[in-house]
């Protein structure tokens, strides 16, 4: 029977905090949890959740994952805890890590997440920052693997804003050697530092393409992926972005240029008729709700490896 193996890195702050082997191991464990082939017990283990931004999937899937592992969660509301009154991260982290066994944090700046990790004696998990969403990417690649069985020859095209989700897809693509194409309007490319990092990791540099043309990026692609045009914290850019992102909607025209068996992914929440049409969102090609379900299995697997 497959058993969760402890990860070399204490924290999971970035998609690059696992090796390729560890990433694939987490996906295998996740599949075992999904198939109910694995039983582990983390009784009395406590996951602390700190969410500075809204969440449905990440929060609930962490809570259910921890419950299925036999442990519990404590959800700290920043507005009713001292966090919202400005208690320094270094103090909060030192206190919480004396109560909890692991922390999952959703916040704005990656540097704040790193500050938590620096002062916490317990592992810290990135539950989304402005820079990365590595837990989402675990579920995304789990969903892709379920569909195509392995990653060989899979082409993943992300159309939209070069945001946290796109950044994590690029890093995972580099780790796994999967072809990733990002199509975004000029000026909305993914983080340049992470793009450079990904190119350093890719053995075949041709497997990462950043373009401003969605029509060429989708040609023959196996996976079409999109996310909101304005992420949390960018609400004031909404009107401007809706103009600039004209032509970047995943619609039947774009889908017809992809591989005939292509699947559609979206991390959710979705804005129909903005980044994706309702027709495509609800089509038989959509794996969006399998992807959302896989958040639970992937995070259960991640926690079981981290808590070893
Ligand atoms: N995809 C995702 O992270 O969803 P939530 O914002 O609802 O957690
Ligand atoms: N890019 C989105 C992802 C939401 C899960 C955001 O940061 O709001």
The CATH homologous superfamily name of the largest domain equals Aspartate/ornithine carbamoyltransferase
The domain count comes to: 2
> What is the helical fraction, as a range of percent?
40-55%
Rg, rounded, reads 19 Å
Explain this structure to me?
- With 308 residues, this protein is an alpha/beta fold.
- The protein folds into two domains: 15-132 and 295-306, Rossmann fold; 136-291, Aspartate/ornithine carbamoyltransferase (Rossmann fold, 3-Layer(aba) Sandwich).
- It contains twelve helices and nine strands.
- The protein has helices at residues 20-34, 57-68, 89-99, 110-119, 134-148, 164-176, 192-201, 214-217, 238-244, 252-257, 278-281, 288-306; strands spanning 46-51, 72-76, 102-106, 124-126, 155-159, 179-183, 208-211, 223-226, 263-266.
- A five-stranded parallel sheet has the order 7-6-5-8-9, covered by helices on one side.
- Helix 4 links the parallel strand 3 (102-106) and strand 4 (124-126).
- The protein is globular, with a radius of gyration of 19 Å.
- The two termini are 16 Å apart.
- The mean pLDDT is 98.
- Phosphoric acid mono(formamide)ester binds next to helix 2.
């Amino acid at each position: 029977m497959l058993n969760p193996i402890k990860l070399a890195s204490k924290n999971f702050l970035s998609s690059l905090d696992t090796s390729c082997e560890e990433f694939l191991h987490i996906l295998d464990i996740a599949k075992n949890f999904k198939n109910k082939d694995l039983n582990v017990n983390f009784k009395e283990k406590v996951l602390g959740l700190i969410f500075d931004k809204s969440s449905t999937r990440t929060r609930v899937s962490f809570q259910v994952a921890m419950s299925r592992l036999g442990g519990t969660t404590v959800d700290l509301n920043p507005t009713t805890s001292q966090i919202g009154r400005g208690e320094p991260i270094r103090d909060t982290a030192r206190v919480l890590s004396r109560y909890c066994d692991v922390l999952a944090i959703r916040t704005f700046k990656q540097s704040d997440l790193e500050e938590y990790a620096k002062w916490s004696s317990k592992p810290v998990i990135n539950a989304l920052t402005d820079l990365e969403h590595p837990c989402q990417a675990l579920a995304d690649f789990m969903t892709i693997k379920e569909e195509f069985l392995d990653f060989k020859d899979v082409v993943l095209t992300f159309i939209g804003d070069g945001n946290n989700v796109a950044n994590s897809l690029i890093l995972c693509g580099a780790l796994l050697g999967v072809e990733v194409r990002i199509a975004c309007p000029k000026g909305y490319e993914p983080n340049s530092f992470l793009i450079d990092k990904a190119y350093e990791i890719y053995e075949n540099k041709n497997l990462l393409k950043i373009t401003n043309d969605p029509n060429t990026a989708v040609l023959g692609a196996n996976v079409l992926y999109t996310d909101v045009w304005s992420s949390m914290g960018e609400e004031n850019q909404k009107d401007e972005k809706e103009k600039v992102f004209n032509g970047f909607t995943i619609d039947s025209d774009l889908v017809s240029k992809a591989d005939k068996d292509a699947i559609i992914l979206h991390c959710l929440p979705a804005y129909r008729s903005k980044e994706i049409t309702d027709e495509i969102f609800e089509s038989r090609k959509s794996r969006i709700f399998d992807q959302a379900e896989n958040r639970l299995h992937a995070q259960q697997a991640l926690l079981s490896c981290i808590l070893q």
